[in-house]
Design goal:
Blueprint lengths: L13 E2 H4 L3 H11 L3 H15 L10 E2 L10 E2 L6 H13 L5 H17 L1 E3 L5 E3 L1 E3 L2 E3 L1 E3 L4 H9 L8 H20 L9 E3 L21 H13 L3 H17 E2 L2 E2 L18 H14 L11 E3 L5 E3 L5 H8 L1
Antiparallel strand pairs: 1-2, 3-6, 4-5, 6-7, 8-9, 10-11, 12-13
Helix pairs in contact: 2-3, 4-5, 6-7, 6-8, 7-8, 8-9, 8-10
This protein binds 2-acetamido-2-deoxy-beta-D-glucopyranose.
The site of 2-acetamido-2-deoxy-beta-D-glucopyranose has 2 residues, from helix 7.
GO biological process, one term: N-glycan processing
GO molecular function, one term: mannosyl-oligosaccharide 1,2-alpha-mannosidase activity
Family: Belongs to the glycosyl hydrolase 47 family.
Length: about 325
């Protein structure tokens, strides 16, 4: 019954992508059990976040549970932040678009992200940087690549006139992440890539050159494919599939790679659980028809497990009223 936080997390803070990634599951649990307590718990998280002052409209990655104040002003759409934004959007979608508070929080958040974190490189690649107390680190993590799919998935609920813009932003992020794959020898992307010191979409530090079978890039290809049917997304997904077969297949399974720029595989000897749950699931769906797990009926949670979109009766009421 006692909670403790990571000692490294900004003075014992809680992490945005942890407390912000309970919403879908807890709402569904209340729906299944008929017990509202789970929904009440996660709604309180949202109430707390709504009341807090946000620097430049951004959500820092750390929040101290004792003081109720933000920790370090680090903002990221990658590790520590990512799925918080994903769950705002998906809370709105899973509620049959009745959860308008989630919708507003999502579009306010991504507007601030676009203003303060999204930049274009000199050759025209759009990327999402990391924000540290107002200074930008021009680095984009593989984890951050999921955001292309998120922008596209939310596009048709965007404030007036912005739907096409968010779909295009999703496509631009997908293109940048594809470049990060294409600029390696293995044709699989590094853990993080940079846009500084004359490089674009390339990992420059040895400890950012690994690929551990992560799904975020093919996740974005799936949403882009479903929403645009531009055949390049299937082409890019097939390149990744072939690269996985050529470079990650080992006796007994698939392994991560220690350095995607080397001419020879150096295996880490680990098959992460998200490889089956996410990476292969998204690839399978890209090469399936749209009526297999249609996006109108299913939400993929942040580990690509399925949750049904709740039919609130809103649509039926609309039909009856008409
Ligand atoms: C991918 O890389 C290949 C070989 O380096 C290059 O010829 C090709 O133009 C690149 N494709 C894209 C879309 O950048």
């Amino acid at each position: 019954g006692i909670g403790r936080n990571w000692p490294w997390a900004s003075g014992g803070s809680s992490i945005l992508a942890e407390f912000g990634t309970l919403h879908l599951e807890f709402m569904h649990l209340s729906h299944l059990s008929g017990n509202p307590i789970f929904a009440e718990k996660v709604m309180n998280i949202r109430t707390v976040l709504n009341k807090l002052e946000k620097p430049q409209g951004l959500y820092p990655n750390y929040l101290n549970p004792s003081s109720g104040q933000w920790g370090q002003h680090h903002v990221s759409v990658g590790g520590l932040g990512d799925s918080f934004y994903e769950y705002l959007l998906k809370a709105w979608l899973m509620s049959d678009k009745t959860d308008l508070e989630a919708k507003k929080m999502y579009f306010d958040a991504i507007q601030a992200i676009e203003t303060h974190l999204i930049r274009k490189s000199s050759s025209g690649l759009t990327y999402i940087a990391e924000w540290k107390g107002g200074l930008l680190e021009h680095k984009m993590g593989h984890l951050t690549c999921f955001a292309g799919g998120m922008f596209a998935l939310g596009a048709d609920g965007a404030p007036e006139g912005l739907a096409q813009h968010y779909l295009e932003l999703g496509a631009e992020i997908a293109r940048t992440c594809h470049e990060s794959y294409n600029r390696t020898f293995m044709k699989l992307g590094p853990e993080a890539f940079r846009f500084d010191g004359g490089v674009e979409a390339i990992a420059t530090r040895q400890n950012e050159k690994y690929y551990i079978l992560r799904p975020e890039v093919v996740e974005t290809y799936l949403y882009m494919w479903r929403l645009t049917h531009d055949p390049k997304y299937r082409k890019w997904a097939w390149e990744a599939t072939e690269a996985l077969e050529s470079h990650c297949r080992v006796n007994g399974g698939y392994s991560g790679l220690r350095d995607v720029y080397l001419l020879h595989e150096s295996y880490d000897d680990v098959q992460q659980s998200f490889f089956l749950a996410e990476t292969l699931k998204y690839l399978y769906l890209i090469f399936s028809d749209d009526d297999l797990l249609p996006l109108e009926h299913w939400i993929f949670n942040t580990e690509a497990h399925l949750l049904p979109i709740l039919r609130t009766g809103k649509k039926e009421v609309e039909i009856r009223e008409n």
